[in-house]
Amino acid sequence: MDGSFLMEDPQLAEPTTVVADIQDLLLDTPDVEAFLEELARHSASIFSTPGNEVYCGITLMRRRSAGTVASSGERAKMLDELQYKFADGPCLHACREITQVHIPDFAKDTTWPEYNELVTEHGIRSVLAVPFPLSDDATRAGLNLYSEHANAFDQAAVQRVNDYVQQASKGLRLAVLIAEHSQTATNLRAAMESRTVIDVATGVIIAQNRCTQQEAMELIKKASSNRNVKLRVVAQAIVESAGGGQVQTYFK
């Protein structure tokens, strides 16, 4: 036997079910990193069949620098990282050129000879790498599926994986958008908290020195510059020295 294996129809349901699965992953994970890890495990699970375990890695490329940000397990991560040593390979090419790369049998492929030889030594015979369609031109990402069998991904399986990636990319873009909004909210909250303690410190200085608000603010800025610390740190020290304790900002 040459190790060939035609992938049975995996339990990849209708697009609406795929969308529902992705939505569940979004709801059940706290951040983008956790979402990607679950997506990698979920992808490996739905494309694996009896007798053919599929390993999944997700490659992220930013400013030509690539890395595996999620994987279905240590083996998938190792398989992704093998090609990073050569700075090229099916997954990197898929991300870089935003095009699908399918190698049915590494033993017969000559595209990346050194990488092919190395990955074959690790027992892998086929790979399917499909890029995520993302709106950010500076960021590229791809789903990488590996199998120990040659010809593991037939034409129908390749189409199913592409359809799946199209649906998953919507969830990925939403996860990134949620993370960006969450970070914006966190930054806004921090800015408001800083503003609160600075305002209280200004009031303390006005009361103690009988000066104007502008003069009080200048004193805080001068102390911040001389000590090379942030305004908020100086302001908090002023409040605490006056017996005010930790200043809290209340959000409704």
Automatic annotation (TrEMBL):
Offer one Pfam family short name for this entry: GAF_2
Keyword terms: Kinase, Transcription, Transcription regulation, Transferase
Please indicate which superkingdom the organism of origin belongs to.
Bacteria
The molecular function GO annotations come to: kinase activity; RNA binding
UniProt keyword Transcription regulation present: yes
Q: What PROSITE patterns has UniProt attached to this entry?
A: ANTAR (PS50921)
InterPro entries assigned:
ANTAR, CheY-like_superfamily, GAF, GAF-like_dom_sf, GAF_ANTAR, WH-like_DNA-bd_sf
Tell me which SMART domains the record gives.
Answer: ANTAR
Q: Which residues form the ANTAR domain?
A: 178-239
Q: What is this protein called?
A: RNA-binding protein
- Give the lineage: Bacteria, Bacillati, Actinomycetota, Actinomycetes, Micrococcales
